[in-house]
Design goal:
By secondary structure, this protein is mostly helical. It has two domains: 56 residues, Multidrug-efflux Transporter Regulator, Chain: A, Domain 2; 181 residues, no CATH class. 66% of the residues lie in helices and 2% in strands. The protein has 15 helices and three strands. A three-stranded antiparallel sheet has the order 1-3-2. The longest helix is centred in the N-terminal third of the chain and has 32 residues.
Length: 310
C-alpha cells in the first residue's frame, strides 16, 4: 500500500488558493489528474497536483490558453518554447498599445475634431510598407527629373523619415504632421523647385558631385556677422556679401555677370527661406531621433536684406 499523501479537492483548494470549482474544471480538462478516488467516488489528488496547479495558475496569469498549458504540463512543449513565444506576442501587443496611447495623446494635444482623430489614427497605424509607399511617392515627386544626378541619392536619403517600431508620442505627432506635408501640393512644388535649382547651379566642369550646399557657406560666412550684430544694410555688411557672392560665383563656374549673379543668389536664398521647409527638417529630426537642426531663417533673413540693400 502506497504511503503517498492524498488530498481531497477541498484540501487541494486550501493548499493552492484556487476554488474547488476551478480545480474541478482543470481536472475535467486533463490539466491535473486525480491519483485515486475515495470509496464514495470522490477524487483524491497526490502532492504532484499541488505543483501542477501552481504552474497552471502562473501560466494562466501570464495569459496562456488552456490548450497550450496542457501541452506544457504534458511535456509536449517545453516551458522555454512556450514562454518565449508568449513573450514575443506580448511585445507585439505592448507596441500596439503604446502606439494607440501615443495617438490618443497626440489627438488630445492637437485638440483634434472627430475627422482629425480619424486621420491621425489612420496615418499612425499605417504599416511599414504603406508608410514607405507614401514617403517614396513624396520624394519621387520632389526629385522627379533628376535621375541623371546620382548625387541626389544621398540628399534624398537625408530627407527620408524612418518611424521606429515603437514610437513615442512626439514621434507619432511629428509623423502625422509630416504625412500631411507630403500631401501638400504647394510644399511638394517648392521642394521640387529647390532641388532643380541646386542641380542647375552645378558648374559645367564639376565632376566632384554637387556643389557645396549654400547652407554651409551661410553658416560660416554670414553667421559671425549676424552674431556680431552687423546691420545688413550697413557698410560692414559689404565685405560679407561680397565673400558670399564670390563663393556662389565659384559654384556656378563664373557663368554670370555680377548683376545677374546677385539676382540669382537672391532668388536662391528667398527660395530657401521657406518656413515649411524648416518645419519639415524639424519634424524629420524628431521622427528619426536626430538632434534638432539649427534654423537658417535668421541668417537667410539677414542675407536677403543685405542683397536687397545693394
Amino acid at each position: 500500500m502506497s504511503d503517498e499523501v492524498l488530498y481531497s479537492i477541498g484540501e487541494l483548494a486550501r493548499r493552492t488558493g484556487l476554488t474547488v470549482k476551478t480545480i474541478r474544471f482543470y481536472s475535467d480538462r486533463g490539466l491535473v489528474e486525480p491519483t485515486d478516488r475515495s470509496p464514495g467516488g470522490y477524487r483524491r489528488y497526490g502532492t504532484e497536483a499541488v505543483a501542477r496547479l501552481e504552474l497552471v495558475r502562473t501560466l494562466r496569469d501570464l495569459g496562456l490558453d488552456l490548450d497550450t498549458i496542457r501541452k506544457v504540463v504534458e511535456r509536449e512543449l517545453t516551458l522555454a518554447e512556450v514562454t518565449a513565444a508568449h513573450a514575443e506576442a506580448l511585445d507585439v501587443q505592448i507596441r500596439g498599445l503604446r502606439r494607440r496611447r501615443a495617438v490618443l495623446t497626440a489627438v488630445a494635444r492637437r485638440g483634434s475634431t472627430p475627422e482629425e482623430l480619424d486621420l491621425v489614427h489612420r496615418l499612425a497605424k499605417l504599416s511599414e510598407a504603406e508608410r514607405r509607399c507614401l514617403i517614396d511617392d513624396f520624394l519621387s515627386s520632389v526629385f522627379d527629373g533628376l535621375h541623371a544626378h546620382p548625387e541626389f541619392v544621398g540628399v534624398r536619403q537625408s530627407l527620408t523619415p524612418e518611424l521606429p517600431a515603437d514610437p513615442g508620442v512626439e514621434q507619432i505627432e511629428a509623423w502625422v504632421e509630416l504625412a500631411e506635408l507630403f500631401q501638400d501640393p504647394g510644399f511638394r512644388a517648392g521642394l521640387h523647385g529647390m532641388a532643380h535649382d541646386l542641380a542647375a547651379d552645378r558648374a559645367p566642369d564639376d565632376t566632384t558631385g554637387l556643389p557645396r550646399i549654400l547652407a554651409d557657406a551661410l553658416r560660416t560666412r554670414v553667421g559671425p556677422a549676424l552674431a556680431a550684430g552687423i546691420a545688413p544694410d550697413g557698410p560692414e555688411a559689404g565685405p560679407v556679401v561680397a565673400d558670399l557672392t564670390a563663393h556662389y560665383a565659384r559654384i556656378l563656374g563664373g557663368r554670370l555677370d555680377p548683376d545677374d549673379l546677385r539676382r540669382r543668389l537672391l532668388s536662391r536664398l528667398e527660395g530657401m527661406n521657406d518656413p515649411q521647409r524648416d518645419r519639415y527638417l524639424e519634424l524629420l529630426a524628431v521622427v528619426n531621433g536626430w538632434p534638432p537642426p539649427d534654423s537658417l531663417a535668421p541668417v537667410l533673413d539677414w542675407c536677403v536684406a543685405a542683397l536687397r540693400a545693394r
